[in-house]
């Protein structure tokens, strides 16, 4: 039976509504279905990125230029925890090692950074929750845990918030979900409009194909961008394909391959993501 929630708790509604007035719309992999209190999903994973070209900062393009390269190994844990009353806590915790290489005035320069990166936590509230359709609103806070010096930076050094809207449908063949919103730097330097669309198709009883498209558009709000925030000032389109294996009802390993196909101010390259989703 369809359940319509007539009102959002006052505190969450006030915060999200106030943020929504400032910007149109965030992204991460959407999951608008709110788990019951005590239930949840945790996804530890490792992500390996390499790119030996970069999209120039002069404009959005598919043409990448040589002259710099970047490789990284990132350890990431994402998850959702149901807390009751149609609410859940979402989190995205990251750390790793980044190596960059640039040819400056014909002098090769390499640098390496490792440690914590910026961390994210949010509160998600379910609106319509049925087996076939769900939507929700979320308010996320990004904590600047990653250091900005020396280069390459592991974080922005700036606090930001991300209100977003999630929605999805579930059918016997699979599911289709989306999330859209904005990452707003609290110092007023920039706002990122972000969106993700995810598709899951059941190939067999245990194996599913996954497809994803992630897009970012950055709107600069001040003439001078703080040096630590430069790593987050970019435009990007990144499709991905992968597989998920239902090993047991609770344990589901997954593999994802992502490619930066167009952008501005960010490295072109590809990333492999390997992890496991544990449902409890």
Structure description:
The chain has one helix at 10-22, and strands at 40-55, 68-84, 87-104, 107-116, 119-129, 133-143, 160-171, 174-185, 190-202, 207-220, 235-245, 251-259, 262-264, 266-279. Helix content is 5%, strand content 61%. The protein contains one helix and 14 strands, in the order αββββββββββββββ. The longest helix has 13 residues, at 10-22. The chain starts with 9 loop residues before the first helix and ends with a strand. The protein has one domain: Beta Barrel (Porin), CATH 2.40.160.40. With 280 residues, it is mostly beta strands.
List the helices and strands and how they pair.
Elements: H1 10-22, E1 40-55, E2 68-84, E3 87-104, E4 107-116, E5 119-129, E6 133-143, E7 160-171, E8 174-185, E9 190-202, E10 207-220, E11 235-245, E12 251-259, E13 262-264, E14 266-279
Antiparallel strand pairs: 1-2, 1-14, 2-3, 3-4, 3-5, 5-6, 6-7, 7-8, 8-9, 9-10, 10-11, 11-12, 11-13, 12-14
């Amino acid at each position: 039976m369809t359940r319509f929630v007539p009102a959002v708790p006052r505190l969450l509604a006030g915060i999200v509504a106030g943020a929504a007035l400032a910007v149109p719309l965030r992204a991460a992999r959407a999951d608008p279905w709110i788990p019951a209190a005590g239930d949840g999903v945790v996804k530890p994973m490792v992500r390996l990125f390499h790119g030996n070209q970069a999209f120039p900062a002069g404009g959005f393009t598919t043409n990448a230029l040589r002259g710099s390269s970047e490789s990284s190994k990132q350890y990431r844990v994402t998850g959702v925890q149901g807390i009751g009353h149609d609410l859940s806590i979402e989190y995205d915790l990251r750390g790793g090692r980044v190596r960059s290489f640039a040819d400056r005035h014909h002098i090769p320069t390499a640098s390496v950074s490792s440690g914590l990166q910026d961390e994210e936590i949010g509160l998600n509230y379910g609106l319509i929750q049925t087996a076939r359709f769900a939507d929700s609103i979320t308010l996320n806070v990004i904590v600047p845990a990653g250091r900005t010096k020396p280069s390459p930076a592991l974080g922005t050094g700036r606090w930001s918030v991300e209100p977003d809207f999630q929605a999805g449908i579930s059918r016997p063949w699979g599911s289709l979900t989306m999330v859209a919103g904005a990452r707003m730097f609290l110092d007023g330097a920039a706002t990122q409009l972000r969106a993700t669309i995810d598709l899951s198709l059941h190939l067999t009883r245990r194996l599913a194909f996954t497809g994803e498209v992630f897009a970012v558009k950055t709107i600069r709000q001040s003439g001078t961008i703080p040096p630590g925030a430069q790593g987050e000032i970019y435009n990007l389109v990144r499709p991905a394909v992968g597989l998920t294996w239902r090993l047991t009802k609770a344990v589901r390993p997954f593999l994802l391959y992502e490619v930066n196909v167009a952008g501005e101010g960010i490295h072109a390259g590809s990333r492999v993501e390997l992890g496991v989703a544990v449902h409890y």
